[in-house]
Amino acid sequence: MHNTGTDGAAAKRPGGIDDLFLSLEHELAVFLRRARASSGEMAREVHPDLEPSAYGLLLRLAEAGEQRATELACYFGVGKATISRQLRALDDLGLVARQKDPADGRAVLVRLTDEGLARFTRVRSARRDRYARRLAAWDRGEIAELARLLHRLNDEQEPEQDEVQEQDEAREQGETQEDGREQG
């Protein structure tokens, strides 16, 4: 499919650009653009005022159950301020509820409400049906291989996400300190 030399190395364009990685970059860009659009549609199906980025929080809470906001921030590789803002919006929409953590009264657990779970489950089921229709011509082995490779790609991104989260937390800490100086 791709232009390779006799030694199996990928063909390179002038300037050392590897055709294989150009193709990968293009396909990932198209996939991510479509995924963002799909995420927005799914979020609106759950609730017209739901931000597309918050849909993933619903997915995580549906799969993992109630969690602390700090656990969610760590899982998604974002700062506490970002998660807090998204959870506040979900709470305002009645899709999540917060309660004191019985193991640590200072902490709060977040869970899907019955309404949030029902809306999310309906949209998720419709999404899975769309996947099944779109991939109906694929061999099940190909679908399994795609899932395996995507899992591997996601796993290999985690160290980068850890770095991003640390940078976000450092920036948020700096903003908090600046706010304190301005108020003081």
UniProtKB/TrEMBL annotation:
Basic and acidic residues bias (residue ranges): 168-184
Entries under Pfam families matching the protein: MarR
Biased composition (Acidic residues): 156-167
HTH marR-type domain sequence ranges: 25-155
Domain of life: Bacteria
Database matches in Gene3D superfamilies: Winged helix-like DNA-binding domain superfamily/Winged helix DNA-binding domain
Location of the region described as Disordered in the Swiss-Prot/TrEMBL record: 154-184
The protein, known as: MarR family winged helix-turn-helix transcriptional regulator
Organism of origin: Streptomyces ochraceiscleroticus
PROSITE patterns linked: HTH_MARR_2
